[in-house]
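re: ur question from earlier - yeah i can do the single chain one, its not a big deal. heres the input i used so u can compare w yours
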Amino acid sequence: MKKLLLLLFVVYVPLGLTAQSVKADWFVFNILNSGMKSNHVNMVAMDKGGSIWVGATSQDGGLVQFDGKDWTIYSMSNSPIPDNRVNTIAVDGTGMKWIGTDGGIASLNDADWTVYHAANSGLPTNTIRCLVIDNNGDKWMGTAAGLVRLSGTTWSTFNTRNSALPHNTIEAIAVDENNGLWIGTSRGLVRYEQGKNAIDSKNWSLLNKKNSGLPSDAVSCISIDFNQNVWVGTKDKGVGMYDGNEWKVFNKNSGLPGNAVTAMVPDDRGDVWLGTSGGLALYNPDGTWKLFQSQSSDLSNDEITNLVVDIKGNKWIGTDNGLSVYKDGGLAFSTYTAKHLFKSEEIARNLNESGESYETLFRGSGDPLKGLNVATAVKEMEVGSYYALIIGIDDYKGVWSPLRNAVNDANAVEKLLKSKYKFDVFHTLTNEEATRVAIIRELEWLVDNVKEQDNVFVYYSGHGEFKQSLNKGYWVPADATTASTSRYVSNSDLKSFLGGIKSKHTLLVADACFSGDIFRGSTIAVPFENSERYYKKNHALISRQALTSGGVEPVMDGGRDGHSVFAYYFLKALTENQSQFYDASELYNNLRIPVINNSVQSPNFKPIYDTGDEGGQFIFMQK
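and the output i got, formated as C-alpha cells:
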C-alpha cells in the first residue's frame, strides 16, 4: 500500500457572490473559486461521510474531494491514481472508494491506495467506463472489452463470446433490489439475473427497440427509482421507463430539454432528475416536468455530464462548465460551509442547516471519553461514540391524518440528549425529510459507519400501522399517502438493520401505534442491580433492545405540555435522572406506571429477538 501526500485548498469565493438572494437556491463551483483543476466535470459522487468527489476528463484534471471546508486534490503528480482522467467512482460498504480511470481502477481507503490495471490483474483493458457495487459487495466494471466482475480477489470478464452481451463496449450498469444487473450497450439493454450460471445464455435477457419499448439501442445511462422502475437513457431518442411490464418513452416532445440523455438520479421524494445535452429536467410521478437551463436559471451549462443527490437533498450537477449545486427553497449546507461559500452571515443563517457546526456535519473520530467525569473503572468499559437517529413526523397527507406532537417530541428528545447526556453524532429527520428512502439511507449509514464499541439510539415518533393480512407492523414515513405498504418501513426491515449495525448497544424507542409488533420471539435480560459491577457487566454484553409506547395497539398523540403521554414521561424520566449512569431498563421502570395510569396504552421494553442481543443494556451517560 502506498501513502498519499495531500494538498489542501481552502475555499475562496469572489465577493460578488454576496449579491445572491438570501435563500441561495444555486451555487456554482469552478476553477476560480474551488480546488477543481478543470471546469469539465466528468463524474460526481458522494461518500458515506458526505464528502463530494469530482472527476475530470482532461489530463490535468484528476480527482478532487470537497468535505465542506477543504478541497483535496489527487493526481498522478501527488498520488498513485493511475490516470488523471477519472470516469467513475463508487463507494463500498466499508467506505472504500473505487475509482475508475483511463489507466485502470484504484481503491482508496483513507490514505492507502491499491491500483489494478491490465498488467497486474484480470482487467482486459485499462479504461474503466462505468462502475457499480452490487448487494454482495462485488465490483462490476464496464470497459470497451466487456463486463468485468471483481469478487473478492477473483476476476471474471463477460463479453460477446461467453454471454448474451450484444456488444463489448459497456456504457452503463445499474443494480436492482434483487441484485439483478442492468447493462447498457450501444446495441441494447441486457439484464443478468445473478445467482445462476453466467455462461448460460438463458440467464441473460436482451432488450432492444425491436423486441421492447426501448426507444433506441444506443444506451447512455441507467437508473432505478424508488418504485424499482428502470430508467434507460439513450444517446439520441430520449429515455425509456420500464416498470417490469410496460414501457413509457419521454423525449423532447414530452418535456425533456434534449433527446441525448446523459445522467439520471431519483431523489427521496420519488422524483427523477434527468440530465441531457440541452439542460436539466425534473420529472414528477404525476407526469409533470420542470426544466432548468442556463438561460433561465443559474445552471452553469446545459451540457449535463453527471448527477448526484446528497444526504441533505442538494443536487450536484456536473456540466461542461463547472459543478452546479441546486436545492429548491435553499441549499442545505452547514452554516460553516455557507459562510465560506457565500461570504454572508445572512445567507448562512437562512440556509436549511442554520446553527449547525462544521464538526456536526462532517464527523471526526475524537476522544469518546472527552468531557466525561467518569472513574477509572468506568474507563475500562471502553465507551465508544454515541449516535442518535431521531425521526418525527406531523405533516402527513392523503389517507394519513396529520399529528400534532410528533415533531415537538422528537425535537425535545434531541435537545435534552444534547444538553445532558453524552452523544457525539445526531441525525434528525422531521416532516418531509422523513421519507422512506431517507429513513433507509440513515439506517444504512449507521450500518456502514458505527463501530463495535459504539452506541446507537433510534427514536421514532409518527404514525404506525399493523396489517392483519400480513401479520406485520410498519412505520409510516412522511411520503406515504395511501394505505399501500410500498411506502412503509416494516418492523422486519428494522430488525434487519438493527441486527446489522455493529454497535455494542442499540436502543430503539418507538412512539407509534402498533410499535410493540417489533417484539417477536422469546428473549430474556439481566436483572437490574444498582452497582458498578452491574453497569460494567451490562456494558460488556451486546444489547439490541426496544422501548415502545404500546403493544400491538393504538397509542395516543395528545398528552401534556405539547407532548404525547409516552414522550412526556420519557422526557421527564431523563430530565429528573441524577445518576451518572442510567440504563434503559431503569428508564422503562420510571415511565411505565405513569404512562399506564394516564392513558389507555401499556409501554413495552424487551430485547429484540434474533438481532444479536446478549443481555446487555444501553446506558445513558451524563456529561
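The first strand starts at residue 8 and ends at 10. not sure if urs matches, ping me
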